[in-house]
Amino acid sequence: MECPIQDNFEITTSIRSDELLVDNPSSLLPRLGKGPFYMLCLHQERMLTALSTFKWPKVARDALSNLHKDLVDHLKQRYDDPCYGVPLKLRVTLSSSGNIDVFSIPTPGVTLGTLFPLDFDDLFTHLPTFGVFVSPITTTPSLFTSHKTTNRAQYDQVRSLIPATSNHSNEQRSTRFAEILLINRNAEIMEGSITTPYFFRAGEWITPRAQCGGNLGTTRRYALDAGLCKEGIVTRESVQTGERVILSNGVRGFGWGHVEALVQIRENEMIKTDKASQAKR
């Protein structure tokens, strides 16, 4: 694939800051270490892989090596505390010129088992945190789906298809996040629009393999390295309404939800959107 023009986008990641993590490192992956920033070393490794793929200059690589300091400085400047007591979502952007920006907003508190599960089955002792939908249109894999950047047009298009309501009560919906799964041209699940998905197949948990075209998230790396799942192919046809799916990302940790039907989308709208997607290829 041809590398995009460097000034048109930034490499980005979202990191959880939580004092719960300071004295509670992962028992499955000790190399993650202690500290308030959730899986920080995996975020750095993923961003480093992205900037190498995009052939960005050394100045960007050097800037990334100072990410921990940039995060601490942000907490000091914004909250006057290098280990702020309220859980935060830290959104980090890195430009090809080596400029790093950090933005933060509060995020809900979670348990340590949500951040570092020892067994995926333990997650089902909690209520579902997601409503899960399957995209009716295909997404073309590219460098912008393999790596997380500020170029989110394909994801925004798919997320626009999420129904405004679902079959659950208003009270249930208010405590859940909506997720929609991206599908490639081979009718394979790529990833979620904001999460990594995991499916139970033939007695084990499977996450879409890299060749399916999705982003290789930090929590995905944790789950694979910790032996909680394996890579594989999950077809759209195999995903059933009502199926339980585990989902994870670098801010919320791990949760789960049931697959729901896209009852709000009219068939002609699907066809129109899919044709528009194909015209851009």
UniProtKB/TrEMBL annotation:
It holds the Pfam family Aminotran_4. SUPFAM superfamilies: D-aminoacid aminotransferase-like PLP-dependent enzymes. Gene3D superfamilies: D-amino Acid Aminotransferase, subunit A, domain 2. GO terms for molecular function: catalytic activity. InterPro entries: Aminotrans_IV, Aminotransferase-like, BCAT-like_C. This is Aminodeoxychorismate lyase.
